[in-house]
Amino acid sequence: MIKTEKSYPERRLRGVLEELSCGCYRFLSLADKDQGHSSRTRLDRERLKSCMRELESMGQQAKTLRAQVKRHTVRDKLRLCQNFLQKLRFLADEPQHSIPDVFIWMMNNNKRTAYARVPSKDLLFSIVEEELGKDCAKVLNETLCPTWDQMLVFDNLELYGEAHELRDDPPIIVIEIYDQDTMGKVDFMGRTFAKPLVKMADEAYCPPRFPPQLEYYQIYRGNATAGDLLAAFELLQIGPAGKADLPPINGLGDMDRGPIMPVPVGIRPVLSKYRIEVSEGSVGLAPQGASPSGCGGGQGRPHPGGQGYPWPPLALDRFRLSLLLLLLSVRLPVCPSLCPGRLPRGRRVLCDGGPSSHPPGEVVVNMEPEVPVRKLETMVKLDATSDAVIKVDVKKKKKKGSSEEPEEEEPDESMLDWWSKYFASIDTMKEQLRQQEASGIDLEEKEEVENTEGLKGPMKGKEKAKAAKEEKKKRTQSPGTGQGPEAPEKKKPKIDELKVYPKELESEFDNFEDWLHTFNLLRGKTGDDEDGSTEEERIVGRFKGSLCVYKVPLPEDVSREAGYDPTYGMFQGIPSNDPINVLVRVYVVRATDLHPADINGKADPYIAIRLGKTDIRDKENYISKQLNPVFGKSFDIEASFPMESMLTVAVYDWDLVGTDDLIGETKIDLENRFYSKHRATCGIAQTYSIHGYNIWRDPMKPSQILPRLCKEGKVDGPHFGPPGRVKVSNRVFTGPSEIEDENGQRKPTEEHVALSALRHWEDIPRVGCRLVPEHVETRPLLNPDKPGIEQGRLELWVDMFPMDMPLPCSRVPTLGPPPPPDCEPASPLPRYELRVIVWNTDEVVLEDDDFFTGEKSSDIFVRGWLKGQQEDKQDTDVHYHSLTGEGNFNWRYLFPFDYLAAEERIVISKKESMFSWDETEYKIPARLTLQIWDADHFSADDFLGAIELDLNRFPRGAKTAKQCTMEMATGEVDVPLVSIFKQKRVKGWWPLLARNENDEFELTGKVEAELHLLTAEEAEKNPVGLARNEPDPLEKPKRPDTSFIWFLNPLKSARYFLWHTSRWRFLKLVILALLLCSVPGYLVRKTLGA
Predict the structure, then answer these.
(1) What's the CA gap between 214 and 205, in Å, rounded?
(2) What is the secondary structure of 143-193 as a DSSP string?
(3) Distance from the first to the final alpha carbon of the chain
(4) Averaging pLDDT over each range in 262-266, 567-571, 856-860, which range is the top one?
(5) pTM higher than 0.70 for the full model?
């Protein structure tokens, strides 16, 4: 009204308000006559009264507002009029329609698959144009991509302003697009704005500025996008010579509208013949009555994998389309930027030159035998003139004592299972993330240093050396207290690993859209009230397929590179989408950081699986009071692709009373994975093994997978031979030619070299791509009631096996040992018993002062427990009155516990309180704590020192007390580390430390102990007694005679504390007393002369 209409917009606004006021009063008069109609219900009467009140108030406001409209207040009053419009639309919407809506169904094999719902008010006929339904007598002769090929000329325009201002800032051109119907009013569709290219009279109409180039302009309808307009605009100044200097206009036009002619040749795009191929897969439609505000809340763009989809994708009514290759010949602009901007994503455009080909030559991939793949380094050297060589070298073992990377331990395969493999992979992933963070921090620090140097100028040599020294010191310091820079690194055993992805698998492989892409099906506009609706709110389904656009005829090099005749289309290698029965095996490992669902801040989670008509709820195996539960479960589901392909894995909170609450769920589109060339059906392992924890679990061996991939990709090969060598296309792979069975016998095999080719499949020319490795993916959990907020993360992976091939046994990742071949549930956790014998102590600090003599002494006893079992701590007896810090005990502790070897954790199950319904499971590091105390009878015992030993890796004990130093515990010296789970029995001296007033560690004593680990079966066969009790009692220690309690033995105390320390004083006093007693008699006798 302000920008695009004629002058005096305030007059038009006054007229609109006057018409609104009159219309309101006319409605009141008609409604007043019809108010007492007998057929009206109470709801009708009350609603009519409400409408009359609203319109009466609106009419008065419009009349008042009309008098306030001035030229300078048009904008403000126009905003108030928008409120009138919204209120009228609200009142016009009937809450209860008396005429039913019209449904138009689409049928497929006598089954209703989709429908269109047309409101009855859009079809009603009336002689009044404003009351006519917008779809009444409408001819469906429409297009969403119109082509005009017209040039509009506006002649003799007068513009006011300076010439240079008009050239730099030309006026804005407003382009509005309308929908012209045969009957009914013209509907506004959208508008766009553009600035023309200005040519002044003194400029020549020639390149490079002229003629103008076509551009795309975004069309808007309100705040929503409504399409694109391809056009060019120019503004030509008419000079003194008139129109003679302007480009000529050829053609006749309508004098009322101006000349309308075809687009000039210089501006018209050059067209060429293209072919469009459409490969149709399947269609998913929303069910009847489905609301587009379901799972995910409609936030973000719908993910092809189902995450954040506007409604539960399982509720889609899916039906299969025959694998149709639709070939269309069209003429498109040669310039790619002028091609239709509305082409859907998922297209593939082949340029004139086609995809580039690799240089010829052989690529040799060497794999050294009997070396874990994780320790291999790959160096790639590519040369256009020579053969490309890919070598796989092996790291040499480091010598003992060198400062380089420590040598890996040889693991005991009898103690390894899938969990060992998993947690080793978790450690590797964490280490990689730490390295990435460290590299990022180093880069930031380097930039800060460079910026600082640039501001402060160059540093002096001494200052620079000092800064470098401090930086090096900071980086070498260990974060732990008392851990020096030379602390020994943790040695990692040689364990075959898998790939742990910290995000969804789709993000690593481009959503598996190598040929099957997902396109949203949008609902068209149904009324003016949907102008502000977003694209997500209009989604009614999705279509799966592929589009390919390429210029014809294709060059010969493209045909040669494709490996087949492209005349019959580029989609010749795609798999068929005929219905196929598939066994889907879902492995759920664990969940992390779940959102609390109970008032105690915890949750009782369990797993629920939905696929097609199958709904599995593992309610019986819920985990009590855990936000980081370990499930270790697998679920087998039979499904038919592509009709049943949306997998939902949900985590629920178990409740004793009421319904269970949904914590979060994740959705996986299995159809894209199953048909992907990345082979996401079953991950490729690092190594091939026929026994042990790393046994091959794919029903097809590597030597069977490789020929199948070569056949599907029309690649030459594989050619095996000589042993340990295979050639695929122009690539040669080498590796071990033998494999070791369970009995240790070596047999010839081709599996290793075939696996080497599969793991380097992306190096194969033309068809090469990354194959999905053996993995565990991490997926976010979302809740429809809390859109956009992550409720936790779930670690899982999915295997898919066609039912027409032999299936492998489900190797379920359980918390115990590997299950037997018949896939029965795993046995419970292994139980151990740790026997700790405290023999002696030495150099214990003396805390007490003797009451009689003032000498330093301590009443020593030793306390021990396993971490997490403080309530079951055990104490030795007391070695009283130790004068030298030496203590003798011969005391035995017994600690039974359940142990999870894969996580190196002790598992404890106990109730949090007396009101708890179930026991809560805790996983605690396996650590033994030993402390020395000074016993006091009339006050609290005094703590003297302690040491905590990690049972998986702790310093080996010293042979003698003199060799035992404080550095053994602080890590300042290189001490061999031992594991009680491998060593089984360890004896030695260990230092006991405590912090002084300066918060520094100091040596407060030494303890001689013996650790002996037995399984529950071994402990039952060889029982021992606690302390010094039967069976197998320990000898009573030989302690000094001074070791006793003084107030329970007063005579003994006098004997040891008084006689042994002051006996010479007593003798002198006795002699002195005897002398004093004999002196008087002697003096008397002397006096009397006796």
Answers:
(1) 17
(2) -SS-----EE---S----S-HHHHHHSPPPEEEEEEE--SSSPPEEEEEEE
(3) 155
(4) 856-860
(5) no
